[in-house]
């Protein structure tokens, strides 16, 4: 590996360590001061136009942040994974909920009342710093997401989403699909038919095994190299 590659790997490792430390600081805050509840798949955590009364942390599971379009369609904007905070923006800006949050899988959610949250951040500067950096990362991710929708082909966008959701073991990556094809199409900016056709083409080419709720990528490195 050349010098630039070594530097790139070192920077990525340092970034991953920093992100893990930030998640740990937020996890400790919510585990110490938050209330825990188990939320079933498809249950709402909050709905649009509700008062913003709590901030949430995904201790386990997967949550989608969505909104309804004018035609009544549900558009998934963000996914919140284990170790991530959500619902803070409206609390910190004093607004009602702009979107709704719903569990994609059975999840365990920790919550802190809005009235307590700001005071806790003042008392725990490590958590305040972690939340600030997490929000900055999300802003950069949103910018990259917009650039991706404009410049990258659908197959690339779908592949990146699958790799994000999947669990790698050896060469294979197993993706248990928590989203319908229609929801995936909203996330990556295409039609439902295009999602189905792309998965079907990869299956016919022998790249993946594709069933109703699962995709197995046979050779993850080769799959990424095709993108």
Features:
227 residues; alpha+beta; Jelly Rolls; Arc Repressor Mutant, subunit A; 8 helices; 25% strand; DNA-binding transcription factor activity
How many H/I helical runs?
8
Q: What is the makeup of the main sheet?
A: 4 strands, antiparallel
Domain count: the total is: 2
Assign an overall shape: globular
| CATH architecture identity of the largest domain | Sandwich
If you average the pLDDT, what whole number results?
87
- Share of residues in helices: 40-55%
Quickly give the structural class. alpha+beta
| Largest sheet: spatial strand order | 1-8-3-6
Order of helices and strands: HEEEEEEHEEHHHEEHHEEH
Low-confidence stretches: none
Strand content: 15-25%
Distance between the termini: 21 Å
CATH class of the largest domain: Mainly Beta
Pfam families: cNMP_binding, HTH_Crp_2
InterPro entries: cNMP-bd_dom (IPR000595), cNMP-bd_dom_sf (IPR018490), Env_Response_Regulators (IPR050397), HTH_CRP (IPR012318), RmlC-like_jellyroll (IPR014710), WH_DNA-bd_sf (IPR036390)
Protein name: Crp/Fnr family transcriptional regulator
Organism: Cohnella rhizosphaerae
Describe this structure in words.
With 227 residues, this protein is an alpha+beta fold. It has helices at residues 3-33, 88-93, 114-123, 125-151, 154-165, 181-188, 192-204, 220-226, and strands spanning 35-39, 44-46, 54-60, 63-68, 74-80, 85-86, 100-103, 107-113, 167-169, 172-176, 208-210, 214-217. Helix 1 (3-33) crosses helix 4 and helix 6 packs across helix 7 (192-204). The longest helix has 31 residues, at 3-33.
